[in-house]
């Protein structure tokens, strides 16, 4: 599976050669009235919400939902967000948001995103980096927490390859 590239042609995340394929989900929906400006163009500040929408589905798919974080006493705040805009999205336009969790050996989540129009053309791409922190103390997790290790074990075993 190919990695998503930025406007400058660089891949967002370098993945080790022996890493499993990314865990991928797609969400298809239309652009809502509340997401657009007076010209019926999606406002640039709404794109992170598109990323979050797909990220929630991705988390539930692989055992990293908000409820899973709470039960494990963890947070996973975003420490980096990047967006490349290619073309505008318009009111009532159908879009697909693709989120891909990329393998990393550290205690972090590297997720890249693509938003495509109904004709398959790229509207936006981007990524987030999240680090795990202890929910009680706020201290960063230096090693991967057990919750993420369980996800990684399932990932290495191929459990996420055939998901719809």
General description of the model:
This protein has 164 residues and is an alpha+beta fold. It has a single domain, classed as Thiol Ester Dehydrase, Chain A (Roll), CATH 3.10.129.10. 20% of the residues lie in helices and 30% in strands. The chain is built from 3 helices and 7 strands, in the order E-H-H-E-E-E-E-E-E-H. The strands form 2 sheets. The protein has a 5-stranded antiparallel beta sheet with strand order 1-4-5-6-3, covered by helices on one side. A two-stranded antiparallel sheet has the order 2-7. The protein is globular and about 45 Å long.
Compact description:
This protein has 164 residues and is an alpha+beta fold. The chain is 20% helix and 30% strand.
| Helix-strand string | EHHEEEEEEH
Fourth-tier CATH superfamily name: Hotdog Thioesterase
Number of domains: 1
The CATH topology annotation reads as Thiol Ester Dehydrase, Chain A
Give the overall shape: globular
Adjacency order of strands in the biggest sheet: 1-4-5-6-3
* Residue share in β-strands: 25-35%
Average pLDDT rating: 93
> How many strands, what sense, and barrel or not for the largest sheet?
5 strands, antiparallel
Number of helices: 3
CATH top level assignment: Alpha Beta
Helix content: 10-25%
Q: Which regions have little confidence, pLDDT < 50, spanning 5+ residues?
A: none
Distance between the termini: 16 Å
Number of strands: 7
Tell me the structural class: alpha+beta
Rg from C-alpha positions?
16 Å
CATH architecture label: Roll
């Amino acid at each position: 599976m190919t990695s998503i590239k930025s406007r400058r042609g660089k891949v967002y995340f370098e993945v080790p050669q022996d890493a499993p394929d990314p865990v991928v989900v797609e969400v298809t929906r239309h652009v809502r009235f509340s997401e657009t400006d007076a010209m019926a163009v999606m406002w640039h500040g709404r794109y992170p919400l598109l990323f979050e929408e797909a990220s929630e589905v991705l988390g539930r798919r692989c055992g990293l939902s908000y409820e899973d974080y709470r039960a494990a006493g963890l947070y996973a705040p975003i420490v980096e967000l990047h967006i490349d805009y290619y073309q505008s999205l318009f009111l009532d336009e159908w879009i697909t948001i693709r989120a891909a969790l990329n393998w990393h050996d550290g205690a972090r989540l590297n997720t890249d995103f693509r938003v495509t129009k109904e004709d398959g053309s790229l509207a936006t791409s981007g990524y987030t980096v999240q680090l795990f922190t202890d929910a009680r103390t706020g201290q960063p997790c230096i090693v991967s927490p057990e919750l993420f290790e369980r996800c990684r074990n399932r990932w290495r075993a191929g459990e996420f390859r055939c998901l719809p």
